[in-house]
Automatic annotation (TrEMBL):
Biased composition range(s): Polar residues: 11-24
Official protein name in the record: methylmalonate-semialdehyde dehydrogenase (CoA acylating)
Keywords, alphabetical: NAD, Oxidoreductase
Ranges where the record places region Disordered: 1-24
Alphabetized SUPFAM superfamilies for the sequence: ALDH-like
GO MF annotation list: methylmalonate-semialdehyde dehydrogenase (acylating, NAD) activity
EC code(s) of this entry: 1.2.1.27
Domain Aldehyde dehydrogenase: 18-477
UniProt entry tagged with the keyword NAD: yes
UniProt entry tagged with the keyword NAD: yes
Gene Ontology biological process terms, A to Z: L-valine catabolic process; thymine catabolic process
NCBIfam families tied to this protein: MMSDH
């Protein structure tokens, strides 16, 4: 059995490691490897190493740190295919989709290649008589990242790319369901010239996460995963005085206005609702046609498009999507379809009980379409995270703005229309963090930033871009005066007890 160890594997040399977690191949339904689950003792060793390595890395000039990021970018590009194959074998997404996962992380590494430019501080000459004010961004020391199963390359790179470029050491705790790619990334980072111990990968479940949350030498934690855990991480981390950003689940709506190009919408929805088997935090699992006529026309076009979807093993070059991640997750998705039916939803296309010929043990769920879903239903309120598209019919534009705005999640939303005014109104009024206008999955590019609202994001700083930089650094403000003489006595002393002003 293949073993996935911590990185470096000397971290697990003694002490913890007796507990393990199975890693599936979701396409075959077989266990392909196991990962060691550890706790505080392994973390302590990782922190000790990080503390030793980080000061010298922080003192390395930013241009030299950038060169490591450039080399890392090169190595990822050279290893794109094997990374994507490894990723898809543990996650189940198709290989081209896995390449997208690596690519969207790589784009943040590309941003981090410009770290000397973005790290520059502010400067004001002559803020007062003979006084200059300037600011600098300094690394926090050791950052930690706790990541979900659904983007095992992209999300770790979003975090450690920014954190390490800014001068921090980083400890990554990836999902125990697909931990191999994060380890491979850490190996490539060393090959790129990062000092050994700058980026370490520790494996575990709640025990390791709690150890990170309570560790006195880890000042900042970035988390991505489900909302209850995100809230827990935010709460416990903040209680321990840490800086925490914690991104949670989602239920993104796609509003379809009567004037939308329905062929384009159906094409976009097929990819956004069913791509990666719906296991994306920016998937579009809810479509909101405005008006009965739009709903009927859309449904008529959706049905054949969904029937035409090809479900296959993750290596099938013609598959639109592959299996879901675990047998438990398959059961959970099918249970949600049953719940939706019991709540009064119309199961138009039923993906329950789907098997793929020749791969009967794989964790496949057929594409599912449910109509007449209403806001009271639990299957609408909660995240299903599978290849399931729900239709929630809205009477008018106002209701279409209200539905995503009042939902507990507020990650992404899209509007499909040819009407610029409607789009502008929608974008301005909807209570959701990321909005697409005729764009189904509006994940902002690497030089903007990513983050949802409400139960999709706890904390106030987004991922990557200048926001990521702000999260992984602390800002120091210096007010400086160089008197002409050696007299530091404060002039005649008459104002020494008054709050200094620049007058
Ligand atoms: P998850 O919450 O089960 O796990 C995320 C991480 O938390 C993993 O590293 C896991 O080991 C750890 N964890 C699990 N249980 C824990 C516990 N009880 N205490 C402490 N830590 C625990 O999430 P997942 O199933 O891996 O990922 C899917 C979820 O992530 C979905 O809800 C999805 O919407 C969300 N997600 C959100 C975003 C975003 O940016 N908002 C992005 C990707 C995924």
């Amino acid at each position: 059995m293949r073993q996935v160890d911590h990185f470096p594997n000397s971290l697990g040399a003694s002490g913890s490691g007796s507990r393990t977690h199975q890693i599936w191949n979701p396409s075959t339904g077989e266990v392909q490897a196991e990962v060691t689950l550890a706790g505080r003792d392994v973390l302590d060793r990782a922190v000790a190493t990080a503390k030793r390595v980080q000061p010298e890395w922080a003192a390395t000039n930013p241009q030299k740190r950038a060169r490591v990021m450039f080399k890392f970018k090169e190595l990822i590009e050279a290893n794109m295919k094997p990374l994507a194959e490894l990723l898809s074998s543990e996650h189940g997404k198709t290989v081209p989709d896995a390449m997208g996962d690596v690519q969207r992380g790589l784009e943040v590494i590309e941003y981090a290649c410009g770290i000397p430019q973005v790290l520059k501080g502010e400067f004001t000459q002559g803020a007062g008589p003979g006084i200059d004010v300037y600011s600098m961004r300094q690394p926090l020391g050791i950052g930690a990242g706790i990541t979900p199963f659904n983007f095992p390359a992209m999300i770790p790179m979003w975090m450690f790319g920014m954190a390490c470029a800014a001068g921090n050491a980083f400890i990554l705790k990836p999902s125990e369901r697909d931990p191999s790619v994060p380890v491979r990334l850490a190996e490539l980072f060393v090959e790129a010239g990062a000092p050994e111990g700058l980026l370490q990968v520790v494996h575990g479940d709640k025990e390791m996460v709690d150890a990170i949350l309570d560790h006195p030498d880890i000042p900042a934690i970035s988390f991505v995963g489900s909302s209850d855990i995100a809230h827990y991480i935010y709460h416990r981390g903040a209680e321990n005085g840490k800086r925490v950003q914690a991104f949670g689940g989602a239920k993104n709506h796609g509003v379809v206005m009567p004037d939308a190009d329905l062929d384009q919408v159906v094409n976009d929805l097929a990819g956004a609702a069913f791509g990666s088997a719906g296991e994306r935090c920016m998937a579009l699992p809810v479509v909101v046609p405005v008006g009965e006529d739009t709903a009927e026309r859309l449904k008529e076009k959706l049905i054949p498009a969904i029937h035409a979807l090809r479900v296959g093993v993750s290596t099938d070059p013609d598959a639109h999507y592959g299996p879901v991640v675990t047998p438990e997750h398959k059961a959970r998705i099918e249970q949600w379809i049953t719940t939706a039916e019991e709540e009064g939803g119309e199961i138009v296309i039923d993906g329950r009980g789907f098997t793929l010929q020749g791969h009967e043990k794989g964790f496949f769920v057929g594409p599912t379409l449910i109509d007449h879903v209403t806001p009271e239903m639990s299957s609408y309120k909660e995240e299903i995270f599978g290849p399931v598209l729900q239709i929630v019919r809205a009477r008018d534009f106002e209701e279409a703005v209200r539905l995503p705005s009042e939902h507990q999640y507020g990650n992404g939303v899209a509007i499909f229309t040819r009407n610029g005014h409607a789009a502008r109104e929608f974008a301005s009024r909807v209570q959701v963090g990321m909005v697409g206008v005729n764009v189904p999955i509006p994940v902002p590019v690497a030089y903007h930033s990513f983050g949802g609202w409400k139960r999709s994001g706890f904390g106030d700083i987004d991922q990557y871009g200048t926001e990521g930089l702000a999260f992984w650094t602390k800002k120091k403000k210096i007010t400086e005066r160089w008197p002409e003489t050696n007299d530091f006595g404060g002039g005649d002393g008459s104002n020494a007890f008054v709050i200094p002003t620049m007058g």
